[in-house]
Amino acid sequence: MKHVIRNMGAAIGLWMIFNLIIGETPLVLLYDLKSGFRYHLAYPLGIAVIVILLALKEWRGIRLKWEIRIGASHFLQIPPTRGSKYRGLFAAVCAAVCLALTGAWAFSGNLSKRDGSWQGDLLIGHSFSGIDDMTYTGSMEAFLEGYANGYRTFEVDIIFTSDDELVLAHGWTQSAEAAGREEWKETPPTMDEFLETPIGDGGYTPLALSDLFRLMQAYPDIWVVTDTKYTDEELVSRQFSRLVETARENGCVDVLDRVIVQLYHERMYEPVQRIYPFRSYIFTVYQRWWGEDFGEFSAICRWCVSHGVDAVTMLGTFSYEEAWRIAAAYGLDVYVHTINEVSEAERFLESGVRGIYTDFIRREELEEE
Predict the structure, then answer these.
(1) Which of 11, 74, 88, 174 has its CA 20 to 30 A from that of 258?
(2) What's the pTM?
(3) How large is the C-alpha radius of gyration of the chain?
(4) For the purposes of burial, counting CB atoms within 10 Å of the CB of 92, is it exposed (0-12), middle (13-18) or buried (19 or more)?
(5) How would you write the pLDDT of the chain (369 residues) with one tens digit per residue?
């Protein structure tokens, strides 16, 4: 039996090293253990192979070992041979790995999010908030309306003007119609032109990114989710470089710690992290997963766990209870967008969703229930 335990310890240790090489944190294995490997079969299949080989070794006299050699010289054998000076160290390492896995597994159900990161919210104001039945304004009035409705986390649309500045707008076709400036559909305005043109019949006040950062300074209890829309590495780098530069130019780099970067694909993460070490991320899957292959969704969740992403967002058009169960199995919060009926919001929340993106639902409408 001691040979079986020793070899199992070696196998688990090597398996964890392999995971680190492929970019997965050992925490993923802990979540897999807690779910009984329901959403990932690679581990149980690998363990089954190991068990079979160990059984053959014990019952049929097959000798299993891993050796590291430098040239013709024997450097290290796993497990070490009897009398080897590495034998005690190997046993201690195996015991430590098993204890670490057991302890971490026992406490993983109560893992808290990283200090200083966004801890989640019931409501996320969509493009700040709707106002007077109008959505996607990204205006000062929409922010004040959302704040009055109890929103403290806001999603904002951020795009470039023709002079390479960032402003709060969903897209130039939509902004052209709202502002009555058809020429913007062909040629985006400069930042000054955009800011000088009221939005819609209500004459709402348009905002630049610098205005958003000043709002975040004035309201230290709010968080902002970025909606930058693109995954192309060059454009992502340009957007977030300009975002960080704007914060520095306005002397408010500290507000970046309350920015929640919305990812649309795994490849966005590295270019963003190279620019600034943002503390909070949310993965919205509408460009990456379309509700069919739950194995693919499981892979997204595993990636999120390995990269410190605490939440996933998906369309609220359909009910994906299986996806929510998978996300919960990996300790991730789930958000759906965009929900504007209280009864629909209640149904999602009762099904295990952490929160919703909304234009009009007030916090008190949900908390009264």
Answers:
(1) 174
(2) 0.80
(3) 26
(4) exposed
(5) 555 555 555 556 655 555 556 566 667 777 777 666 666 666 566 666 666 666 665 555 555 555 555 555 444 555 555 656 566 666 676 667 666 655 554 444 445 566 789 999 999 999 999 999 999 999 999 999 999 999 999 999 999 999 999 999 999 998 998 888 999 999 999 999 999 999 999 999 999 999 999 999 999 999 999 999 888 999 999 999 999 999 999 999 999 999 999 999 999 999 999 999 999 999 999 999 988 888 899 999 999 998 999 999 998 876 678 888 899 999 999 999 999 999 999 999 998 899 999 999 999 998 754
Q: Residue with structure tokens 């379309």?
A: 290
* Counted domains in the chain: 2
Residue 92 lies in a domain: yes
The H-assigned helical ranges of 149-203 are: 172-179, 191-195
CA 79, distance to chain mean position in Å, is 39
How big is the chain, counted in residues? 369
Mark 344-359 as b/e (b = at least 16 C-beta within 10 Å): ebbebbeeebbbbbbb
Task: State whether 287 and 153 are in the same domain.
Answer: yes
Residue 128 and residue 40 share a domain? no
Residue 243 and residue 158 in contact, taking contact as beta carbons nearer than 8 Å:
yes
In sequence order, the 6+-apart residues with CB closer than 8 A to the CB of 176 are 182, 183, 184, 185
151 and 220 inside one domain: yes
Q: Are residues 71 and 35 part of one domain?
A: yes
Contact (Cβ atoms closer than 8 angstroms) between residue 284 and residue 262: yes
Of 81, 110, 139, the one marking the end of a domain is: 110
Residue among 359, 308, 368 nearest 116 (CA): 308
Contact 204/137 with Cβ under 8 angstroms?
A: yes
